[in-house]
Specification:
Elements (H helix, E strand, L loop, with lengths): L1 H22 L5 H23 L10 H27 L2 H9 L1 H12 L6 H18 L5 H4 L2 H27 L5 H23 L10 H27 L2 H8 L2 H12 L6 H16 L4
C-alpha cells in the first residue's frame, strides 16, 4: 500500500510544479510560498480532524516533536529555494536538479537510518545522477548557463535539493509513532510560521494587493495539490523505506515534463530526453529486490 501512496505523491507533486510555475510568474517567490502554505495548513488540519488523529497530539514525545519541527524548517528552506529557482529558470531545468535530492536522501538513509545497500539501489543512484546531469547541462544552453542569471537559479535549485533530502530523513525519524496526517499538519505549521516571518521581515507582505486573480487561483490550486502530495508522501514514508519512497515520489518529473511541454511550451532535446529516461529507469530499478 505504501508504494501506491508514493506514486500518488509523485502524481500530485508533478501537477504542483506546473501550477506553482504559473502562479509565481508575477508574484514574489517568498510571498507565493507563504500564501500556498496557508492552503496546505488548512487542508492538512482538516484531514487531521477527519481521521480523528488530533486526539493523539498529547502523546507525541519530545524527540518526535523536535524532528518534526526540524523537518518543517528544512521543508520551508527547500520550498523558498525551489520556487525562487522556478521563478528564475525553466521548469525542465529546475525540476531535475530538485529531483537530485533522491540520491542525497538515499545516501543519508544508508548512513543515518542504516537502510540496506543493494545492487539495485547502487545502479539506481548512478542512473538518477547521470540522468540529472544530462537533463540540466545542455550543449545548446552552455553559454546561457555561464551568465549570472542562470547561475542564480542553479544555486537555488541545488539548495532546494539539499534541504529536501534533509526533510525526508528528519521526517522519517520524527514521524515514528506519530499519525502521518498529524505529523504533516505539525510540519506545515512550522513552514507557515517560517515563511510569513520572512515575508514580514523583508516587507514583501505589501505586495499582496498587487496579486491578480489568475495568480491567486493557481497558487491556491498548487497549495491543494501539495497538501494531497504530502499526505500520500508522509504516510508512505512512515510505512516504507525512505530510500525507496523518496525516489518514487521524484517520478513526478514525468508529470512535470509532460505538463510543461503542453502548457508552458518547454521542449526537451535529445540529450535531455535520454536523461529523463535514465532518471525513470534508475527510479524503477530501486523497486527491485
Amino acid at each position: 500500500m505504501w508504494i501506491i501512496l508514493a506514486f500518488g505523491s509523485a502524481l500530485f507533486a508533478g501537477v504542483t510544479a506546473i501550477l506553482a510555475k504559473i502562479g509565481v510568474k508575477k508574484v514574489d517567490s517568498m510571498l507565493a510560498t507563504a500564501i500556498r502554505t496557508i492552503i496546505i495548513l488548512l487542508f492538512s488540519w482538516l484531514m487531521v480532524f477527519i481521521v480523528g488523529s488530533w486526539e493523539t497530539t498529547y502523546a507525541i514525545d519530545q524527540k518526535s516533536l523536535l524532528f518534526l519541527i526540524l523537518s518543517g524548517l528544512a521543508t520551508g528552506a527547500s520550498w523558498l529555494c525551489y520556487f525562487k529557482a522556478l521563478q528564475l529558470g525553466d521548469v525542465n531545468k529546475v525540476t531535475p536538479i530538485d529531483k537530485f535530492s533522491t540520491v542525497l536522501t538515499m545516501i543519508l538513509a544508508i548512513i543515518i537510518l542504516r537502510e540496506p545497500v543493494t545492487l539495485s539501489k547502487s545502479i539506481g543512484m548512478v542512473a538518477i545522477a547521470l540522468g540529472t546531469y544530462l537533463m540540466v547541462y545542455k550543449k545548446d544552453t552552455l553559454r546561457e548557463q555561464t551568465t549570472s542569471y542562470s547561475n542564480t537559479w542553479l544555486v537555488y535549485a541545488l539548495l532546494s535539493a539539499l534541504f529536501a533530502s534533509l526533510t525526508a530523513i528528519l521526517a522519517k525519524i520524527g514521524i515514528v509513532g506519530v499519525e502521518s496526517n498529524l505529523g504533516t499538519a505539525i510540519r506545515t505549521a512550522v513552514v507557515l510560521i517560517m515563511a510569513w516571518l520572512i515575508v514580514f521581515m523583508t516587507g514583501r507582505y505589501r505586495e499582496i494587493k498587487t496579486i491578480n486573480k489568475k495568480s491567486w487561483i493557481f497558487l491556491c490550486l498548487s497549495g491543494i495539490t501539495t497538501g494531497l502530495s504530502w499526505l500520500c508522501y508522509f504516510k508512505a514514508l512512515q510505512d516504507g523505506q525512505a530510500s525507496i519512497v523518496v525516489p518514487i515520489d521524484k517520478l513526478s518529473i514525468i508529470i512535470t515534463v509532460a505538463f510543461s511541454y503542453f502548457f508552458l511550451k518547454e521542449k526537451l532535446n535529445t540529450k535531455s530526453f535520454v536523461g529523463l529516461i535514465l532518471i525513470v529507469a534508475g527510479t524503477m530499478t530501486l523497486l527491485l529486490p
